Amino acid sequence: MTNLPDIPVEQLTEDEARAELARLADAIARADVAYHQKDAPELTDAEYDALRRRNVAIEERFPALVRMDSPSTAVGAAPSEGFAKVRHGVPMLSLGNAFADEDVADFVNRGRKFFAQDLARDPEMRLCFTAEPKIDGLSASLRYENGVFVRGATRGDGTVGEDITENLKTIADIPEKLAGSDWPAVIEVRGEVYMTHAEFQRLKAHSAKYGGQDYVNPRNTAAGSLRQKDPKITASRNLKFYAYGWGIAEDGSGNPQPPAPTQFEAVQKFKDWGFVTNSLMIRTEKVEDLLAHYRRIEEQRATLGYDIDGVVYKLDRLDLQQRWGFVARAPRWAIAHKFPAEQATTVLTAIDIQVGRTGALTPVARLQPVTVGGVVVENATLHNEDYIKRIGNSGEPIRNGVDLRVGDTVIVQRAGDVIPQIVDVVLDKRPADAVPFEFPHQCPACGSEAVRELNEKTGKLDSVRRCTGELICPAQAVENLKHFVARDALDIDGLGDKQVTQFYAEGRIARPADIFTLRARDERSVKKLKDVEGFGAVSVRKLFDAIDARREPELDRFIYALGIRHVGETTAALLAKEFGTIEEFRRVAVGATHSGGDAATIFPQISGIGDTVRSSIMAFFSNDRNIQALDDLLREVQPRPYVVNVSADSVVAGKTVVFTGSLEKMTRSEAKAMAERLGAKVAGSVSSATDILVAGPGAGSKLKKAEELDIEVISEDEWFERVAK
């Protein structure tokens, strides 16, 4: 199956986008638990940010696919079970991110646009912003009642945190009683608990001396220290605390009582009350000043003595903050300007070619191991042969027009993409005997010719070179078998990637049909599968039973499992619905490709299937080896006919329905399936043939066009009422 993280968002199909959103939701949730609960991050900041940015980009392109558990609306992770729970009076939200100067300018301009009328009415009004270092530590909220520290908590999931009061009391920077006398009756002071570099090195050396654990970095160590059951251990770690914000702030009657009129003055007030605040905080109304301060802090980063990962900008006036408001998981009036991912210099020792399921030859850089952003990097993606030759996707020169050669000294980074990238070549260190890389024109796995296909629409060669060996290519065969048995294809329990690779290497399976003859061949074999290491009589019996249980798969799953290029789950369902049986699909496709005429005109036009998919289907069935493999498979497997049962009293039978906007009671695929079961036809766009438009929140151009064409528009609730009649 295609590696979804490698597909640009703009090229994802709806099915691929749905699967990718599910993968991202799971990956981000696991990362949040590892970071917030276990204090053992599995991803670098750059990797985590890349996942979130990809999730947002997909949701913006496919708003109907936004999940109920979308990471876009989540903050942190649920509190761990080892501590009592504390509900925050005001949620502890995350911050939106900026990665470029343009993002910061856009943030400020959004503020100026939002308050444009105020600025026009009052020529003396100034829209100021604060800028301060973003500490890489653990967020904490400290509740003071009548000036006395009574409870402290972690961020948790933003709504509920962990009660770590006793541990926080051991931190010298946190006063047990506030200084001065002008503090609110109740206030939650918020800030960051962190560990200095010096303290981290001291602890690391002490642990190594006595054979203790190997501490990874100051942030993880500080978080772990703060969650100790014994406050004495926390006290021994010499943690620090910077105050920079607040939650509840009320007078004795429960009325709001902000610390000061502005963000800048509030932080100064914290200092008066006995907290440590960051001296690198400034206030200005100019974007240029914010960016200049960002540069100054970035230059000082290595000498600060503690970890930071960016600069935080906030709108200064508190009343304007409240008016500008919030989005799902972050305030609109604040943003974190992240530092670029760290770069490192290393040597390109080799360029290897990997062959994927579709025959794509992908070059991979082998590097001398180097640490980048806390992660050891040994490999980097090179995308395709043009990338090695310093040519970008649109034909433009990249890396200042410098190609990549084995032996080159290169600069590697992990910014934005999860996979490391080579961003530049140090030309003055290029070996005298380094030669341009010759991309192979033969598949390294089977020796078949590898070609770059001509894109019929653009008239240009595809950037990817592919093996033409198809079923005889071992690299493609293994990946095709993995795809065939995958969860969203035939879903054969107990036959995963590991088993497929092992069985192929041992000669037990080479094609999909071999999976279904495995039991019979094993019974005749001298070396039984149950005698192979890692297996046994029970596990083998369960595997054979699981295989037999999939001898009558759903037709759409079966078509998808064949691995035809560009045929995803949705397209497979369209083909299944059109032809009804695998025999009819085979008959028409083979007839179209072996008739001697124009296959594209013989094969029927199917709504939702374009020229690219049709060409892939024709290419698949024009290959006699593929037809033979399918026929061998059909001697073992009988896919069930695709049947749509339409209720006789369905009020939408025969009507064309379009769904748009964000559906709240069902996913887009569920809505489509429901409508089709009721005999309706679901279209992707509004036209004069449309009968009903079901519009959820956020409906845009489709709703406008439906109104122009005087098409009936109903809500999601009205849809359910209608089909329930």
Short recap of the structure:
With 725 residues, this protein is of the alpha+beta class. It contains 26 helices and 22 strands.
SSE arrangement:
Layout: H1 14-37, H2 45-61, E1 85-87, E2 96-98, H3 101-114, H4 116-121, E3 129-135, E4 138-145, E5 148-154, E6 160-162, H5 165-168, E7 186-194, H6 197-209, H7 218-226, H8 231-236, E8 240-250, H9 263-272, E9 282-284, H10 287-300, E10 308-315, H11 318-324, E11 334-338, E12 343-355, E13 360-372, E14 375-381, H12 385-388, E15 409-413, E16 421-425, E17 450-454, E18 461-467, H13 474-485, H14 497-505, H15 512-516, H16 518-524, H17 537-548, H18 555-561, H19 569-579, H20 582-594, H21 599-602, H22 611-621, H23 624-634, E19 656-660, H24 668-677, E20 681-682, E21 692-695, H25 701-708, E22 712-714, H26 716-723
Parallel strand pairs: 2-11, 19-20, 19-21, 21-22
Antiparallel strand pairs: 1-6, 3-9, 3-10, 4-5, 4-7, 7-8, 10-11, 12-13, 12-15, 13-14, 13-18, 15-16, 17-18
Helix pairs in contact: 1-2, 18-19, 20-22
